[in-house]
């Protein structure tokens, strides 16, 4: 079967302006690439079309034309919440031109909402719920829809949902993602600025699932289990990226990269004994990063470690990220930097229960940590997250799927009062961090290491200056109160 897998674009970060999100950080759609490699191994002809890629045209019609140029029998969309409607607009365009083409949607948004989507969106033929490799392979092989676990389909004009698909038991059996199917990879795909020294960069995911239950995290696809690639598989994957594509830096986007200590020790031993000449970044959770492990990561080529912190208010942490405590965060950041690694803090503003005072606590806490980098997401309530069940009682919600991407505030906590106020507080905090003399000193000490990021910024200067101006807080709220 001829199959095209599509990563739809989604909405612009700032309406009416050039979208700088993909310019500053364009990630390969790893889930689609994994499915593409699996389907190709099953004997199908597979193409990947990334609507956010460097070679993609602008507009629904132009992207539809490129998909149809592959003469597909089946088109699969992997859509986030914000990208779902763009994907559906493409599906409508495909059906208008070639009604016989099958349309299947998958991804976390689809897995959270399930079969009712088929009743609302008639141009979708099937939904792939949960992991997509085997479900899509069985559909492409011609199996009857009623016999395919993890599939939602139509019977008598109504959406029906089969039993859940069992998780793949052994991730090492999967082929490496089909990076070669991405136009412009790797040079057209950019890691976050100042997160690397060498280029080009790439991304990897080496595990699926998470045993924790943070309030804001949608686990509709991988649930709460934890499965992972072996150290030998990860090393071979890194080596493949280096040898095939010349990659020199890898961001590993596991939620809990260091949860299984034995595999990370083995991986670090491999990377130290047989260096690949590349750097990598990873994320750890408080409680899973002792001094010996951090030193091993440094010796293996790790450059920066990210730490999910979310808030500097202990009351909010108790509700939304239980088991994480501020003193432990301080200690972990200190030990990360003592091991010679960079420390990046990951935060989230606008959680249910957030107040002006809690935002101030977080802003003060961030500066007190002496971080090398920081990311502040805008809390977005996703349908499959535990917090969704109570979100409408805790503030105002704008359920515009196109805006639900952690780059826009779609939820305003009752205690904050207005979207304008929340945006002002966010912009004040971001500007405060990057204006901090301590952070600027740390940045200047690494100015030569940052030269590739700085040169990239120079090449795209007008867009970056426009984006920076969007973070200017109103004068009257220059400091959170």
TrEMBL record:
Its cofactor is [4Fe-4S] cluster. Residues 196-414 form the Radical SAM core domain. CDD domains: Radical_SAM (cd01335), radical_SAM_B12_BD (cd02068). PANTHER family: ANAEROBIC MAGNESIUM-PROTOPORPHYRIN IX MONOMETHYL ESTER CYCLASE-RELATED, SLR0320 PROTEIN. One of its GO terms (cellular component) is cytosol. Signal peptide: none annotated. Residues 15-150 form the B12-binding domain. This is B12-binding domain-containing radical SAM protein. GO terms for molecular function: 4 iron, 4 sulfur cluster binding; catalytic activity; cobalamin binding; metal ion binding. Keywords: Iron, Iron-sulfur, Metal-binding, S-adenosyl-L-methionine.
């Amino acid at each position: 079967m001829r199959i095209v897998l599509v990563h739809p674009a989604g909405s612009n970060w700032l309406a009416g302006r050039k979208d700088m999100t993909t310019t500053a950080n364009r990630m390969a759609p790893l889930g689609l690439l994994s499915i593409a490699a699996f389907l190709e191994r099953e004997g199908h002809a597979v193409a990947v079309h990334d609507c956010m890629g460097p070679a993609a045209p602008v507009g629904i019609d132009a992207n539809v034309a490129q998909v149809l140029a592959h003469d597909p029998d089946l088109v699969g969309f992997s859509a986030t919440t914000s990208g779902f409607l763009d994907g559906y607009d493409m599906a409508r365009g495909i059906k208008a031109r070639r009604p016989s083409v099958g349309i299947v949607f998958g991804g976390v948004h689809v897995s959270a909402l399930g079969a009712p989507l088929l009743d609302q969106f008639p141009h979708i033929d099937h939904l792939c719920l949960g992991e997509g490799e085997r479900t899509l392979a069985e559909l492409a092989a011609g199996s009857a829809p009623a016999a395919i676990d993890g599939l939602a389909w139509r019977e008598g004009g109504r959406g029906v949902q089969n039993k859940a698909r069992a998780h793949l038991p052994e991730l090492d059996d999967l082929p490496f993602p089909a990076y070669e199917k991405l136009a412009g990879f790797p040079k057209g795909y950019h890691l976050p600025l100042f997160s690397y020294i060498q280029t080009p960069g790439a991304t990897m995911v080496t595990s699926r699932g998470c045993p924790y239950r943070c309030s804001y995290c949608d686990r509709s696809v991988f649930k709460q289990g934890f499965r992972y690639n072996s150290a030998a598989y990860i090393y071979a994957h890194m080596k493949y990226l280096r040898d095939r594509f010349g990659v020199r830096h890898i961001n590993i986007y596991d939620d809990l990269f260091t949860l299984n200590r034995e595999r990370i020790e083995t991986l670090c031993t491999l990377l130290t004994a047989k260096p690949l000449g590349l750097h990598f970044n990873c994320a750890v959770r408080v409680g899973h990063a002792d001094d010996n492990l951090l030193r091993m990561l440094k010796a293996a080529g790790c450059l920066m470690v990210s730490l999910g912190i979310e808030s500097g208010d202990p009351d909010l942490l108790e509700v939304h990220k239980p088991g994480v405590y501020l003193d432990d965060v301080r200690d972990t950041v200190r030990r990360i930097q003592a091991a010679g690694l960079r420390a990046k803090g990951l935060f989230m503003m606008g959680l249910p229960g957030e107040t002006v005072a809690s935002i101030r606590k977080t802003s003060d806490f961030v500066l007190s940590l002496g971080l090398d980098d920081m990311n502040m997401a805008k809390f977005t309530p996703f349908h499959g997250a535990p917090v969704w069940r109570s979100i409408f009682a805790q503030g105002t919600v704008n359920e515009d799927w196109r805006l639900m991407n952690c780059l826009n505030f779609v939820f305003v906590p009752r205690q904050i009062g207005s979207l304008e106020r929340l945006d002002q507080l966010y912009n004040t905090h971001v500007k405060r961090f990057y204006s901090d003399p301590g952070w600027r000193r740390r940045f200047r000490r690494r100015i030569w290491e940052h030269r590739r990021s700085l040169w990239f910024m120079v090449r795209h200067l007008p867009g970056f200056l426009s984006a920076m101006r969007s973070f200017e807080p109103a004068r009257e709220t220059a400091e959170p109160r």
